[in-house]
């Protein structure tokens, strides 16, 4: 391959289709071809029904059953390639704890938590079945960022209930003198309490426009009787016990656990360790 193309993932996807026609591109490269064009793709993962050594950016993975759901996609100006469907590619990445592109795909509507669950339930044996079961659990509330995923799992771990992740909430603000309908998706919505927890990460809240949008969003929620509880990823990861105590103080009794355990964050799954139990 020409030197100028050696770091181009599209070139390697096209070359893979020429060299190994039974191969199915998956992982980051598959999601990149299906909407996440700005996704960093340091390697191109591909599935084969036999073992084969890696070459260049290509990383081959032995896979025979179940057959991956596939789609034919255009590769820029190169041609076409056989790639795993978005839900299949997301399941592959999640089993390897590469969460950022999976959450981005959920955020952009490229795949859904339900589609990922359905792919996991397809018949056939998978060598990483337990890891895939964890992926389905972690993505069940459609987290749009890695901190959201970690927060959702924290709520499940300590037994906080009555919430939904990225639930569509219809608001009716006044815009230019007229009442209109706006749909917003709190990171964790406690509908009964009308409480919206928002993970304010720099990824989506790092500009003057984002600041203005956050202020407008807060006003719209307040006009509907909702309260917002913002939390940063740093606060979530470094002071989770304070966050949980503050959150439980705002919840109905049937949504709170009998007692809150003390937890500690870790950067890899399962993300949280229980250190001990304390009172409510």
Summarize the structure in words.
- The structure is a single chain.
- This protein is an alpha+beta fold.
- The protein folds into two domains: 136 residues, no CATH class; 132 residues, VSR Endonuclease (Endonuclease, Chain A, 3-Layer(aba) Sandwich), CATH 3.40.960.
- It is 35% helix and 21% strand.
- The protein is built from ten helices and 14 strands.
- Strands 1-2-3 form a three-stranded mixed sheet.
- A hairpin with a 3-residue loop joins strand 4 and strand 5.
- The longest helix is centred in the last third of the chain and has 16 residues.
- It is globular, with a radius of gyration of 21 Å.
- The model has no long low-confidence stretch (mean pLDDT 88).
Number of domains: 2
Oligomer: single chain
State the strand order across the main sheet: 1-2-3
Q: What are the secondary-structure elements, in order, as H or E?
A: HEHEEEEHHHHHEEEEEEHEHHEE
Ends apart, CA distance between termini: 62 Å
Q: Radius of gyration in whole Å, from Cα? A: 21 Å
Residue ranges: pLDDT <50 for 5 or more in a row? Answer: none
Count helical runs.
10
How large a portion of the residues is in β-strands, by DSSP E? Answer: 15-25%
Label the structural class.
Answer: alpha+beta
Mean pLDDT: 88
The strand count comes to 14
Q: Per the principal axes of the C-alpha atoms, what is the gross shape?
A: globular
For the biggest sheet, the summary is: 3 strands, mixed
Q: Helix proportion of residues, in percent?
A: 25-40%
